[in-house]
Amino acid sequence: MASASELQALFARANAAFARGELETAREAAQALIAQAPRVPQVRHLLALVEKKRGDAAAARTQFAAAIEFGPNDPQVHNNYANLLSDLGENALALDHYRRAVALKPDFADALVNLAMVAEAEERFVEARSALRAATYHQPGLAKAWQMLGLLDRGEGDLDAAATALDRAVALAPDDRKAALGRAQVEAERGGDAAPFFDRAEALSPGDLDLFIARNAADAGDPHGAEARLAAKVAANPEWLGGHMSLAQIRGQLGTTPPEASFDAALAANPRARAIWFALIGLYNRAERHGEALHTIARARAALGGDVDAAFVLDQLEAIAADEAGERERAAQLFARLPESDDFALQIARVRHALRRGAPDEAAAIAQPLTAGGSALAWAYLGTAWRLTGDPRHDWLAGDERLVQTLDIAEAMPPLEQLAARLRELHVMRAHPLDQSLRGGTQTDGDILVRSEPLMRQVRQALGDAIDRYVSLLPPPDPAHPTLKEPRNGARIVGGWSVRLTSQGFHVSHVHPRGWLSSAFYVSLPPGVGDDTHDGWLSLGVPPAELKLGLPPLRLIRPQPGRLALFPSMMWHGTLPFADGERLTIAFDVAPRRG
């Protein structure tokens, strides 16, 4: 048995070898130590770090567990073990160990930041913010904590707090590109002069294409200038997918140049750019130009030749496009040929195909597993299949009248005429976005409800108060229900936009895939909208018209200036057309506050 001094020397050599990156030497020394002193937590911890560095997660996990067994009160061990668990995707267990690290050492700033990162990933925003505030209190010079706090505040819509935190982050780490970009985006979103902030970010990231898009999008008041700048940048970077998609969106709303023009130019220069082909086909499908999608698939097959991987993707895209184009037999043959896949978009396409074929039981069987992740879209299709088969679970899902509420909140709002005038100033496009539900109108860009102007602050406050009233009137919690399972400890607005519909305008039936609750607040209506003809009314529960299922609305909501409608995001909703005039609304999604 080695003496204590010999064991200490061996531990020092193992530590030094690990610090130099000599992992095998460190591992052998640590294992030799364990053979003689198996219950020393520091040695187990060191070997856990070595095994993690070597890429052997299972061995690292075993050693971390032993280190905690023999020394349960070491905060650094809990923090490092949590890091491993987070890397493995075991966020719930990782959070437990980060919390234990912080409980043992409340000023452990690194553990607090790590805790916040995982809590945010799990949408436990309250816990994440609390951890970051503690980190900045205990270590006020920790730039990454301020940066994360600022970005978290931005995501929560508190742009003033975000600006303050990101100013601290930029001052502490002036070369940090992410902090500089975040600060620029915050200033743009709250309606301030963002140019100096973007100048700083560009100086740190010259040639950054994502930064270019962010700055270009911030110039919402000059869409034609934004289009020209982006078109030039895309022409210089013809395989830049993000640029093509952003440019197509602008062009679709301006109605000047075909949205697909930049894709066509890129493919003319490089016909084997398969990612561009896939994106163009996706663009046609989202724009409901399914015949052109099928034609483009044929062109892509010819251009890409024997590319087996490309052929597999094109088979999927062709099955989807054929079904949407009404070519049922072609779609059925293509779907039958495709191998089993857990790809969400493909599975939703199979659900739609089954519904079109009059096979709601089959649609339900495909859709039900997709709801495990909480997808509002999967729940909407499952509910439709249940409704078609007379399954009583449809009543459980959507039948309670308290799930849909209207609240008249005009008195809490700024004068509606003043609000309408401001919203009209924000509608600068000529047509609807390519991938949105409205037809015959325009939609504002960005989140209008986070703007710092007093009028929008009052709007957000009034909406927030109304949401609290809605939640207080919901049916009792139900852990199996996609809406009622969520906690009732507050809610937050995520995203806010205005829609301006004009003559014959409407919304196609849709859901909001990332929302918990969705909404419509009526600002201004034309004469006749809101009367008993149902022109311009909000329709709930009708599946997309192209499925031709013949189901009537579950609810019709009468619009009225100052009225707010709130309903589950997983509920199909659309707007009936109206004859003439302007229908001006604000819409937003709501997320629950978890943790």
Oligomer: single chain
Shape type: globular
The CATH architecture of the largest domain comes to: Sandwich
Structural class: alpha+beta
Distance between the termini: 51 Å
Provide the CATH top-level class of the largest domain: Mainly Beta
Mean pLDDT: 92
Give the radius of gyration.
28 Å
Number of strands: 9
Number of helices: 26
Low-confidence stretches: none
CATH-assigned fold name of the largest domain: Jelly Rolls
Helix content: 55-70%
* CATH H-tier superfamily of the largest domain: q2cbj1_9rhob like domain
Question: How would a textbook summarize the main sheet?
Answer: 9 strands, antiparallel
Number of spatially distinct domains: 3
Percent of residues in β-strands: 5-15%
Please explain how this structure is put together.
The protein has 595 residues and is of the alpha+beta class. The protein folds into three domains: 4-189, Tetratricopeptide repeat domain (Serine Threonine Protein Phosphatase 5, Tetratricopeptide repeat); 224-270, no CATH class; 402-592, Jelly Rolls (Sandwich). 57% of the residues lie in helices and 11% in strands. It contains 26 helices and nine strands. It has helices at 4-20, 23-36, 41-54, 57-70, 75-87, 91-104, 109-121, 125-138, 143-155, 159-172, 177-189, 195-204, 209-218, 223-236, 241-254, 261-269, 274-286, 290-304, 308-324, 328-337, 344-356, 360-370, 376-389, 393-398, 416-426, 454-472, and strands at residues 405-408, 438-443, 491-510, 517-524, 538-540, 555-557, 563-568, 573-575, 583-592. Strands 1, 2, 3, 4, 5, 6, 7, 8 and 9 form a nine-stranded antiparallel β-sheet that branches. The longest helix has 19 residues, at 454-472. The chain starts with a helix and ends with a strand. The model has no long low-confidence stretch (mean pLDDT 92).
